[in-house]
Specification:
homodimer, alpha+beta, about 20% strand, binds flavin-adenine dinucleotide, FAD/NAD-bd_sf (chains A, B), tRNA uridine 5-carboxymethylaminomethyl modification enzyme MnmG (chains A, B)
Amino acid sequence: MFKEYDVIVVGAGHAGCEAAASAAKMGSSVLLVTMNMHTIAQMSCNPAMGGVAKGQIVREIDALGGQSGIISDKTMIQFRMLNRSKGPAMWSPRCQSDRMMFAQEWRDTMENIPNLDFWQEMIEGLIIKNNRVVGVRTGMGIEIKSKSVVLTNGTFLNGKIHIGEKNFGGGRTGEKAAHGITEQLVELGFESGRMKTGTPPRIDGRSLNWDFMEEQKGDDNPEKFSYTNTPKLTKQRSCYVTYTNEKVHEVLRKGFDKSPMFSGRIKGLGPRYCPSVEDKINRFADKDHHQIFVEPEGWNTVEMYINGFSTSLPEEIQYEALTKIKGFENVKMFRPGYAIEYDFFPPTQLKLTLETHLIENLYFAGQINGTTGYEEAACQGLMAGINAHNKVHEKDEFILKRNEAYIGVLIDDLVNKGTDEPYRMFTSRAEFRTLLRQDNADIRLTVKGYHLGLADENRLERVLYKKETSEKIVKEIKNRKISPDDANGYLEQIGSAMLREKSSFYSILKRPEIDIEHIKTLDNEMAEYLRNFDEEVIEQAVIHVKYESYIEKELLMAEKMSRLEDLNINPNFDYERLHSISIEARQKLKKIKPQTLGQASRISGVSPADISVIMIHLGR
Amino acid sequence: MFKEYDVIVVGAGHAGCEAAASAAKMGSSVLLVTMNMHTIAQMSCNPAMGGVAKGQIVREIDALGGQSGIISDKTMIQFRMLNRSKGPAMWSPRCQSDRMMFAQEWRDTMENIPNLDFWQEMIEGLIIKNNRVVGVRTGMGIEIKSKSVVLTNGTFLNGKIHIGEKNFGGGRTGEKAAHGITEQLVELGFESGRMKTGTPPRIDGRSLNWDFMEEQKGDDNPEKFSYTNTPKLTKQRSCYVTYTNEKVHEVLRKGFDKSPMFSGRIKGLGPRYCPSVEDKINRFADKDHHQIFVEPEGWNTVEMYINGFSTSLPEEIQYEALTKIKGFENVKMFRPGYAIEYDFFPPTQLKLTLETHLIENLYFAGQINGTTGYEEAACQGLMAGINAHNKVHEKDEFILKRNEAYIGVLIDDLVNKGTDEPYRMFTSRAEFRTLLRQDNADIRLTVKGYHLGLADENRLERVLYKKETSEKIVKEIKNRKISPDDANGYLEQIGSAMLREKSSFYSILKRPEIDIEHIKTLDNEMAEYLRNFDEEVIEQAVIHVKYESYIEKELLMAEKMSRLEDLNINPNFDYERLHSISIEARQKLKKIKPQTLGQASRISGVSPADISVIMIHLGR
Ligand SMILES: Cc1cc2nc3c(=O)[nH]c(=O)nc-3n(C[C@H](O)[C@H](O)[C@H](O)COP(=O)(O)OP(=O)(O)OC[C@H]3O[C@@H](n4cnc5c(N)ncnc54)[C@H](O)[C@@H]3O)c2cc1C
Ligand SMILES: Cc1cc2nc3c(=O)[nH]c(=O)nc-3n(C[C@H](O)[C@H](O)[C@H](O)COP(=O)(O)OP(=O)(O)OC[C@H]3O[C@@H](n4cnc5c(N)ncnc54)[C@H](O)[C@@H]3O)c2cc1C
């Protein structure tokens, strides 16, 4: 009934879709198996993509030739560049999405990929031969063979939904949980754990009084995620901001004794940085209000997502608390919020390719690795899909370094440090965040994507042009000079220090108060010259001028680090010989089998002294 | 958390959506509760609306002010008027739908109805007080009050899915079954039964060889369902026709010993007129091929529905059999076909308003009443919604007679005859099918819809214009005459008998070989006159000219019948007194409590002699 596939992907969430798309586009024959073909790329929680650090990830996925950026662009209803007022390392694209269109667009995209087949069913087990995965077994008992398998089960493995004192099995509201896989993997020697996450109630926008909320419009000049020529938004839908208050908190507190979290019914750890509203008022008891975003679920729907109000308190408490929010007096709910507990596999059991140590050619990606968030899931899917393809076709592993991409940071963190609570990306996790900007993901990654066979010629040309041209512009800005006579009038007018001698535009642009528009006003010829280039390229040049020193500092640091990074460790290296390092370090090293000394240095529990010892044994 | 609603509708299938929409539009406060708001108006089986007799129902729903016609028009990818070559009683509109768009359009429509609220959850019980329903109880235990409840659970009540020897609980593939309601109703004294239906596998259109199939295009000049000004299709997608063959049958027969139907594992009766492919080759063993339609599931998707290949044989048998069909040699399946068994409630327990006899203000509509098909479900939903609203607002019952609408035939059949197998509409079920045409549903029903408060002013004006104008045209055609000299040249040319004397266009148009285009060619003045009217109106006039005698005969018959129909029977009429009628008739009459002598006459088991006895007792 089925041929033997190169790659079988289990689950069609964000991870599964990117995995299947990338492996198929690179030339693998791929089967995507998912429980329900109507829920391909369902956004389980908020209808939004990107955000701080997450937006950078979407840009990176796009730069490599993944789909999430393009699909987000085609289905967004609002776009904002967060943190515009801060340095470019912090600029973070974020969009609201039309939930239905997003899923539909993913489905259309997937159906148009030639090597990609579909099968709708629950997978209940893997077929393993000699510690190597060779296929999957479906709920109906069908065996489908493959050279590799990528598991992306999301929150479905033994998923259990909690609302107040009630709980029931489910992978998402209204959907079944998946059983069998955890049990089999544990039997095979995998360690599994339990995590939880939550979602807010959904409400009827028609029942709200918008006059009492602050409108939050999209950017005036909305950008987008993809470096390709996806269309820009011409109209947008607004979100609204409101706040909880003491009355809301009071009502919520009434439900605490029935809370599945506070009562200990939920064992799994939740995302600390995406806490439920009860968590927030519990942990920050002194704060008398918390912000809430009311976000539309699509272009036309009246359904609203209440960002900031994730909760698993009893539904009548949720309702009563909502009615105490300004503008929510007559609120009507569509469904209550809930918490969900699910199995995950501590990611220290993975290689940097996302292949498991225990079972060859078996890859894990997404929430199953203890992460949270669509973007975190999607990028793992992309990487697992690439590596599964490469392994099957005897090509090199594809690993991104911490100084190359947030994706590199994420996977390096997961594999080396593991995670106790749902792992979410932050800019603070990246040592080199001035290098890992949203504006240069293409410059960092598209050449790689091209060599993988994922990013097409067109992308390559675009990025080469952007790189060369922005460098040219920087050079030009450095070369061209202006005299005090010509400059000082305008500089005085805008309150910037006057020149004493002929100076390069470079030195002027470096001033914090000066932007490229000032330069254009200052000098007609510069204005004329710059008119030849589009905004994106000029922006790239400006960032390089303004942040050159930061960038260079980080480049230096990265280079230092990469010396360790270039020292490979044989996977069969015998750590037992190293009597002088701590037992904990020895155990971790044996388990994680770091591929480089750099990776070894980041394993939690491995000290700099331990690294020196290993270095000596490596003969350095 | 909830106010008391006028009407709660349980289930958002075709029946539930029409019910909720109609009651809300008429002014009731309505809550629609459904298990998953992402599956509102999901087409469970084939992506198509209408067809023989079913298309007439959609037109009737539309004429009354329901939604199904409008939504079908907005989301169709192909339209055909079936049986165009037969008389107008047989003309039946049918469309292929974009499955996703259809559901999305329904959802948008519902969200824009002011009095309509939503709640996503499974309903597990009803709240009953003094044999009257006063609300529902959800899976989480929330009690929601209402003055009436419409149950439209479709195939979900204790739904059980079968594929070969495997079976599992589910209301549709990938969706949960609903429990609790049947059990409670049975406890309350309801009789419940078990039925089954089936669906074919879904396949990947990219794996088919279209060259070996016949293309079936949409109509050249596609019409539509709604009498309102919904847009007409400007492009269409084709379906394809192919056939099973002996090899296919051979493979299928290999699976018979594992068939859940033949082995007796499925207890419920299936739809005789929509049989599974294994049923077909079993019952018609002499036929060496059966027709198969390959129907696209939407504008862009590669997913194909294989109409005519419904099956619950083991999935590998399904697959192997498919590969033996011409053009299917390399077929890839997305998921296998399956059969589903579910609870229904014999509809003899209902009044003609679809209210149950046992529990006041409780209505049943759709598949729960033993019917099959979206159209059958939708029209029941509409009628139940109307009647629930009217009852709550102390307005008259709304019942359609057998000579007024297929909807009337359907409900009358269900209530009086009951059904052992899934009931599907056919033109043969209607005694007055020349009256119940697809072209005049508006003339038959829109005035009623207007008085109900469902069809708007605009619709009323349109229909009054159509009626008056078409009558005027008939009169004109009767009045205007043409001389042999003017006519015979052309008549001879087109092979129609020549005139002997000056004759009316009426007499000429009545000839089978003559259509209105001929009349226009025959006479410039007629052509000029007709140019003032649009096609729909002219067609109406032509039908009246050509089929006048049939129409009048049926009108006469209907009048005769309606004499019995007008004789009301007191619901408390004591049938026990009637010793001279059969025991069976007495029991049935006591149970069904016919509202008129006409209805009594149609109860299966009640003889004409019995009717005479009752008539005497009624004092006639
Ligand atoms: C209630 C809830 C609240 C959340 N809240 C947040 C939040 O506040 N912030 C945040 O960043 N993230 C949140 N998330 C997480 C976010 O939804 C996930 O991180 C993201 O969807 C994970 O993507 P994934 O591809 O790993 O898995 P998912 O999107 O969960 O997709 C898993 C897919 O696998 C399929 N599947 C599972 N098991 C099987 C099987 N055995 N056989 C076949 N198919 C299978 C499923 O049908 C599904 O298609 C929340 C998730 C949920 C459910
Ligand atoms: C596998 C299959 C094959 C079919 N094949 C054919 C065919 O070949 N030809 C044909 O004409 N028809 C066929 N049908 C029938 C057709 O789908 C139905 O007639 C039609 O959908 C019935 O509409 P409905 O509104 O009564 O119920 P459904 O469309 O089944 O909708 C029921 C709704 O109620 C909800 N629901 C159920 N129980 C609860 C509860 N307790 N609480 C809350 N919500 C609830 C469900 O989520 C769903 O939204 C098939 C159906 C199935 C499932």
